[in-house]
What does this fold into?
Amino acid sequence: MNVKNIFKLCVIGSLGMATLGLTLAFNVSTAAAHGERSQEPFLRMRTAQWYDTRWNPQKTNINEEAMLSGKIHISEDWPRAVVKPNRTFINVGSPSSVFTRLSSKVNGVPMMTSGPMEIGGDYEYVIKLRGRLPGHHHIHPMLAVNGAGPIAGPGGWMDITGNYKDFTNPIKLLVGGTADTETAGLAAGLFWHVVWGSLGFFWIGWFMVRPMFLIRARVLAQEGGDELLNDPVDRYFAFAMLGVVFALIAIGFFYTDSQYPYTIPLQAGEPKIKSTHLKSDLTVKVLAADYDVPGRALRMTLQVTNSGEQPLRIGEFTTAGIRFLNKVGVANNNDPSYPAEIMAQDGLHIEDESPIMPGETKEVKLDSRDSLWEIQRLMDLVHDPDQRFGGLVMSWDETGNRHINSIAGNIIPVFTRATAG
Amino acid sequence: MALFRTKEIIAASKLPPEGVKLSRMIDAVYFLPIAYLGVFATFHMHFDLLAGDWDFWVDWKDRQFWVTVTPIVEVMYPGAIMYYFWTFYRQPFGATLSISGLVVGKWITVLFAWYWWANFPANFVMPATMISSALILDATLLLTRSWMLTAIFGVWAFAMVFNPTQYAIFGYSHQPVVVDGQLMSLADYMGFTFVRTGTPEYIRIIEVGSLRTFGGHTVWISAFFSAFISMLMFTIWWQIGHFVGQAFFWVKGRRGVMSRMNDVMIVGTDEFALRHGTPDGIAPGHRVTTKTAATSLS
It folds into this structure.
């Protein structure tokens, strides 16, 4: 190795050390989200429309129960590019199994396995959880759609305190007794792995104690080598090993069978869940919509008709789990526990704030305007292959009843201030 | 009287004592760091890509796909490795080496990836073990000394004993439980209770298909089917072992003709030098008159 090569290696080594040093110098923080912002806007806005999501309570001890609940509207404007929700599963988006899931009900029906959902349907889910791993966790409801992937709902923070060592998750068996899902079958599994592993290594060891490769290859290459290598003691050993293996298999099988006389196969059915439908006295038609890129606003022109008996006021527009509210929405639907980072309390603006009177049809200009469009990466709408938007418009009558309309429509991007109008 | 024929074998190898000592050092270096670690790393990757989820999760271990897929995938590598160890060394531990290596790899994954990193309990991600099947396969090869008979009888038993072996480990998980009025096996419930964000329930490929008849004895139908496909796979992979494991090389003769040499042991001998010359052009010290045992090792 000449001086030049030594110098090169020194330079490369120094660069490597410098890189490591810089890495340590930066503030390295824990990644705590699930990439929900990286999902394309058309996927988040026009598939599962999440609302009324609750993380309750937000602080839990180990072994204590918590609830993740809310509602999903399956958008009528489901994108062509996404596989239809013929097989879906209500899931929890969490960093590993920080909670165990005790029960999951959709419209009151247990959803342990996956099943179809109806486009245009409305579903209320309640997921019962038990605190398992201490920490500060970002928890999402999630709708997994076969062929389309998981569609993350809004994420909220839940804290679990205590010590993991205290965690137990007992489940009552149908035939009596309980099993703890943390430890059930562990001892038997380890025992049999040790037994078979020991036997396997003993078999290999039987041949390892003698010359293994070079010597045997040289002998085998000679005439009669094959016969010489066919040691009778190995044949006896192989017969004995076969006997031991079959005997152990039989012992393990029949012993286990006697331990668990009542067993069932894995269950692979599907729940049949009837959907409900959104109720509203308001009819909403999207006349036009544009997305003001520099202004970070979705501007909609809607034709609304009130077919009810009470005046209605629009108070909220929610899409992709992100809520844009005005004073009406705050007064009627303010949940202080809803994560502030996905809610704009002054994010909804109406040109004419007068109520929509019974029997009235009028044009409403509705702007949902907030930096959340950028922060939550919904502005990437302009890069989508399907330039449409979707969401839920919520309005309230004078008695506080909520009316929800699912809307969707074409969207035209406005790229510059000059054309922003 | 010695237990083994070791002395006769060493004598027949015609190696001097220092050669014997060196060969044992080669055994140690070659076997553990190279053969064993190499096989278990590559086999583990191969297995996880083809049958990983059935092995990872307790709620994937069904009567149809798990029983069918696992033996088929686990017999592939042993087929090739058995060819190599048997053909060149008459060593009957190719299957046990491959599968015990695979199990070691699986346990490393269980401890470091699933338990330590992802926080799943070990019972939920307990792997299956086919070391029992591997021992049957190796013993069959040793006793029959025929890969064909091993493929027919050994591989058949290899697949058929899969389910009874695993039952001792996973039988508990088929106990019935009732949750919210729904009947589930304990395994289903464990799959439900341990949240897997990226693995929704419908990902499971279980209990789907037509391997059902004979009064619901699905598992044995699946095992038979698996055994037949495993025989085919073993044969194919034995031949793959033959293809990639042939000991030959190409040399250029004095007249410039390329020829295939099947005897790798001839390299460095006088006869080789006599036939093909030496890199430094120095002629061998004496002329070799007897024909060497240039039999094909392949």
Summary: Chain B touches chain A through 101 residues (CB under 8 Å). The longest helix of chain B spans residues 17-56. DSSP finds eleven helices and four strands in chain B. The beta strands of chain B are 176-179, 182-185, 249-252, 258-261.
